[in-house]
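Narrative of accomplishments. A recurring question from our advisory board has been how the design workflow behaves on a single, concrete structure rather than in aggregate. To address it, we present the structure tokens for one chain from the evaluation set, followed by the sequence designed for it. No filtering or post-editing was applied between the two.
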């Protein structure tokens, strides 16, 4: 069975073809290794923990808080926190992102790269789907076909832009042929882009797939009861091919109000959660009912520029807003001190696999982060933008969003811009990423961007012409060419040097306005332990590790 994607191919640009390569899965893991972890580190005054204590035994169930209900659990639309926090425990990918943010085998026990445009995945034998059937190469081909079908408008379609065909070359072997070398594709096989679901199960569900019933994947949990508007229950899958989950059930509660989430953790109504409201850090630390952990997040807080046709189309106005923004004040209030000021759109940890000189060049001569109101006022006046309106989205998801929007409004008022706030409901905030109508009338919205792979190109490729998150419509042939070169370069050092140039351009043009690096926050009460502290929970089956703390 062969899949030939029908999606739009990216512009070839100038390709830096690697020499004839033969990369084993081991070499791939080395090339895509995550940030160095020395057990603990500091970021903005908080200590980063490498992990939480290993669970000492099994439990019947645990309950988790999430800030919104997923609109769907269909893996082709799994691009945001609520979906992936749950789905990562139900559906698995060819490769796996580990808690240490490194790449490891997943449903494929081996990945080989016999030439620059070929990837061969040898699948594990005897892997069962939740419907009881056994995974074959045909299921992989079918699952990837759903990602590339333009009628599906998959969030991960861009991952497959350089794929020419996906073929079952054996009962347990899949061969991916690329149109051109693509260093990012094998890394994304550890994300929701690489998920494998049962062909028969997906077809039987039809248009209802992802919104109820079974997801027919292979993870340590299977989808149980979905109480719309309230909760999703996952049940342990006892025929799981790997280590069985320590809990028989995982319950995810939708608590859109930050205070309600915090109170539920303090009362024991829920056992833990990620994306802790920053205004609750101090209460949770001092509560005595559990532990607040921080881990590597690969996350930056930015202002996503969604309209380059309006006032912000003039780079001088973008620079003025950046210069007027009180980043330190926002970190102190909006992030409760847990974060660091940055003029970069990527985290330093995302460059962990690059040589020292490349990392240094990537963070030189970036946009200034020191507040300079006089220069900002002069830029606004020079651009003829005094008194003009900029509209920014805000939301009650958490004070990290609402206070950043307020900080932008304050900055604008001090330099002659009329910044208006538009309130978006927490459950509707996700639509800003998928629905152009939801972004109508907006110039900016606060976004915490997390890297889905440990490679800075994951973020920097967003400014290529036509990219999924290029909401402002930025287009520069020179930038596109560098993205193509970096994508085609398998050597991490050479790729990093190209990515450093991209970072310089993105920063100087302020395609998004960078604000802060922000670690992952996790709360666990005294009853449970085992969840990873890093952003790995987006694609790693973390809930299977949660068990008894004593």
């Amino acid at each position: 069975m062969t899949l030939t994607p029908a999606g739009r191919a990216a512009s070839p640009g100038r390709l830096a073809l690697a020499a004839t390569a033969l990369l084993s899965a081991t070499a791939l893991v080395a090339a895509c290794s995550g940030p160095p972890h020395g057990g603990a580190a500091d970021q903005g005054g908080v200590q980063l923990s490498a992990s939480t204590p290993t669970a000492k035994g099994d439990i019947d169930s645990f309950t988790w808080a999430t800030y919104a209900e997923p609109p769907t659990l269909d893996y082709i639309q799994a691009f945001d926190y609520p979906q992936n926090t749950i789905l990562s425990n139900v559906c698995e990918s060819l490769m796996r992102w580990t808690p240490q943010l490194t790449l490891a085998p997943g449903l494929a026990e081996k990945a080989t790269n016999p030439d620059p445009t070929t990837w061969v995945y040898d699948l594990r034998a005897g892997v069962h789907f939740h419907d009881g059937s056994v995974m074959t190469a045909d299921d992989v081909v079918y699952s990837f076909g759903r990602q590339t079908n333009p009628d599906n408008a998959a969030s991960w379609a861009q991952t497959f832009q350089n794929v020419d065909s996906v073929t079952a070359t054996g009962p347990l072997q899949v061969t991916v042929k690329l149109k051109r070398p693509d260093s990012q594709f094998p890394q994304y096989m550890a994300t929701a882009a690489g998920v494998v679901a049962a062909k028969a199960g997906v077809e039987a569900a039809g248009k209802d797939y992802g919104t109820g019933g079974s997801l027919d994947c292979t993870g340590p949990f299977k989808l149980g009861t979905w109480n719309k508007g309230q909760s999703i229950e996952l049940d342990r899958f006892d025929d799981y091919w790997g280590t069985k989950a320590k809990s028989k059930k995982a319950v995810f509660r939708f608590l859109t109000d930050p205070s309600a989430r915090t109170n539920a953790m303090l009362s024991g109504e829920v056992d833990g959660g990620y994306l802790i409201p920053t205004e609750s850090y101090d209460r949770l630390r001092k509560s005595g009912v559990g532990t607040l952990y921080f881990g590597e997040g690969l996350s930056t807080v930015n202002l996503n520029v969604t309209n380059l046709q309006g006032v912000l189309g003039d780079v001088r106005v973008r620079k003025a807003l950046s210069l007027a923004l009180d980043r330190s004040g926002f970190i102190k209030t909006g992030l409760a001190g847990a974060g660091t000021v940055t003029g970069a759109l990527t985290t330093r940890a995302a460059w962990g696999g690059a040589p020292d000189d490349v990392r240094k060049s990537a963070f030189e001569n970036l946009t200034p982060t020191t507040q300079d109101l006089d220069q900002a006022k002069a830029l606004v006046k020079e651009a003829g933008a005094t008194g003009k309106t900029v509209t920014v989205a805000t939301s009650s998801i958490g004070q990290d969003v609402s206070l950043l929007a307020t900080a932008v409004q304050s900055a604008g008022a001090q330099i002659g811009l009329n910044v208006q706030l538009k309130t978006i409901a927490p459950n509707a905030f996700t639509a800003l990423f998928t629905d152009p109508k939801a972004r109508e009338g907006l110039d900016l919205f606060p976004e915490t961007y997390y890297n889905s792979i440990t490679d800075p190109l994951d973020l920097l490729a967003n400014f290529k012409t036509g990219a999924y998150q290029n909401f402002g419509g930025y287009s520069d042939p020179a930038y596109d060419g560098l993205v193509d070169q970096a994508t085609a370069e398998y050597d991490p050092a050479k790729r990093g040097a190209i990515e450093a140039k991209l970072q310089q351009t993105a920063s100087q043009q302020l395609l998004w306005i960078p604000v802060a690096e922000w670690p992952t926050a996790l709360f666990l009460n005294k009853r449970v332990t085992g969840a990873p502290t890093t952003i790995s929970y987006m694609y790693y089956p973390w809930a299977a590790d949660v068990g008894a703390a004593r």
